[in-house]
Amino acid sequence: MIAPTASRMLRAELRRTTSVRMWWALLIPVVLLALSINVFGGVFSSSLSGLGGETPGVLLASLAYSLSLGSVFAAVHGAVQASGEFRHRTITTTYLTGGRVPVLLARCAVGAAVGAVYALGTLAFGLVAGLFGQGSATFPSPGPLFGLIGSGIAVCALWAVLGVAVGTLVTNQAGAVVLLLVYVLAIENVLSLILRSGADAGLGTGPPAIARITSYLPGNAADVALYDIPAVELAGPRYGNQAVESLAGVASPPPGWACLIVLALWAGAGVAAAWVVGARRDVT
Amino acid sequence: MQDHSGRIAVDGLSKRFGTVEAVRDLGFTVEPGLVTGFLGPNGSGKTTTLRMILGLVVPTSGTALVEGVPFETLGSPGRVLGAVLEAQGFHPSRTARRHLLVCAAAIGVPDRRVDEVLGLVGLAVDADRGVGGYSLGMKQRLALATALLGDPRILVLDEPGNGLDPAGIAWLRDFLRGFARSGRSVLVSSHQLAEIGQSADRVVVIHRGACVYQGELAGLGGGRRGRVLVRCAEPVTLAQALVAKGLMEVDTLPDGRLAVGGADAVLVGDTALAAGVAVYGLVEEQVDLEQLFLQLTGGVAG
Ligand SMILES: Nc1ncnc2c1ncn2[C@@H]1O[C@H](COP(=O)(O)OP(=O)(O)OP(=O)(O)O)[C@@H](O)[C@H]1O
Ligand SMILES: [Mg+2]
Asked: What is the per-residue pLDDT across A227-239, written as a single tens digit (0 to 9) for each?
């Protein structure tokens, strides 16, 4: 029973998502951003040359930066996808043709797939733009490139799932999108700033525990995961972590894979909250 | 266990929204083979009750079971029950066909079923237009098409006549009757008796969230029979003659006419002739169900 239900729900959610313009309407700015950021190599070629950066590292770092922005669009898509059902009152029909929890899970899966598409779009267009635009850029070696592709897909997919969770919890569409953007663009930065300011006051060696929390916020965790590989390419294994600190704005970051797990936990927590709240909500 | 009976059983169902008691201790069943009308004035709790049956609103207390289980535990709900609800929306830029294809995938029916239901509700020509441009009646038809996709055993409709043209309403009435005759169940709500009256086999009437009548439509009269209204030359003489014949329900109306209960026009006319009273007018009055419904639900006193 469970397998057919899952495939029915996935097919329905895929059709639901692809039968309206939103997913590719948001893909356009994602691609445009990837093109413009990577053509110029972002801020990286200038600000990071002091770290002894090599050219493939710069391209990887600018790709990572565009993936970080792409993940915001993936999250916005997820939020719009989920809250749009309440906005257009289509949620009634959706719940009548499938259970609430299967619908939520299918929505997370399809949202994640759209996030993965955004990541791939960013990487493909960003890579081409970077090779053409960043004069001396060379094609990154396969190891780091595939590493970045993997973490880029994971980050965008997980942020899309977080977006679905937010859009399910905050059913007001404008509210869900604004909340998401304000968090990503402002709240998390302010939080990081406050947490890190504790580091300056500390007298001991290394940043205090409170400053280390910065890496565990969902946006920063995503950035650490994305910049982990480019930073090593840029600054070498020895100074890689410092490069991640300055790129992601965190203190003493754990390894990239650990931050992916942290982000997955945030996404899981979001879905759990949406599950609990969504399962008992009155749909009138 | 789901019993595949096509029955709905509502028991002790209550719902409170803050201070509003929308539904109070409601109990009724919907049986296969019958059209059950669900009547009540605006705000009486019809939509809330139907949404509780469909697992969309969580009851404060009581149960609503579809085929013996709560709706949300049905394995493939779309094949068991189809619903047309108020405030059931469509994405404005999704076409009717795409909307139905989404639902067909969710229910697990083949895509050709989409063309079948589009034809059935008369939307085949407009199927590839965005629903945003649809009229109210067209949306109502699309909602019905959606409900029918899974070829369900039960139909639940909340004021389905809204926005439909007279031909559409007549068609819907016949359709629902046919659906029930094929051994399936229909629960249809309305705030007007007239819309349901001709097709419902049973009615459940609610007022302020509580049931005030349930049973056959004919029984809504509470055993009241029709009256005969007589305009005559000598009402008193005629009244005495009628009472002498054993007709005890004889009243004088404000306009001077006699109202005779439990008799027909022939009996009253013959009695008047035998008593030598000149009759100027004789009217048989039917029990007005609409009036009774209004009385029952606290509307205009009849
Ligand atoms: N989400 C809600 N929040 C608060 N009150 C509600 C909510 N939904 C319904 N109500 C209240 O519950 C009562 C019953 O409403 P309901 O919509 O079930 O009536 P109805 O019989 O369907 O009316 P109508 O014929 O106008 O459609 C009303 O007093 C209504 O205001
Ligand atoms: Mg209603």
From this structure: 998 888 888 888 8
Contact partners, residue B233, CB within 8 Å, separation at least 6: B277, B278, B279, B280
Range of weakest confidence among A45-49, A93-97, B156-160 = A45-49
For residue B28, the SS3 value is strand
Looking at this predicted complex, what is its ipTM?
Answer: 0.89
**Degrees, nearest 5: CA angle A165-A167-A168:** 65
A118: its two tokens: 């955004």
Helix-strand-coil split of chain B, %, nearest 5: 35, 30, 35
Question: A278: which DSSP letter?
Answer: H
Q: Is the distance from the beta carbon of residue B140 to the nearest atom of ligand 1 less than 6 Å?
A: no
Place of tokens 């006051």: A201
**Three-point CA angle A242, A39, A234, nearest 5°:** 20
Question: With a 6 A CB cut-off, is B285 part of the ligand 1 pocket?
Answer: no
Host H or E run for residue A235: helix A218-248
E strand segments, chain A: none
Set of chain B residues whose Cβ sits within 8 Å of the Cβ of A283: 51, 56-57
Give CA–CA dist B115/B145, Å, rounded: 10
Asked if B106 and B41 count as a contact pair (C-beta separation under 8 A), the reply is no
Chain B: give the shortest CA distance to residue A173, in Å.
14
Closest alpha carbon to B164 in B183, B184, B143: B143
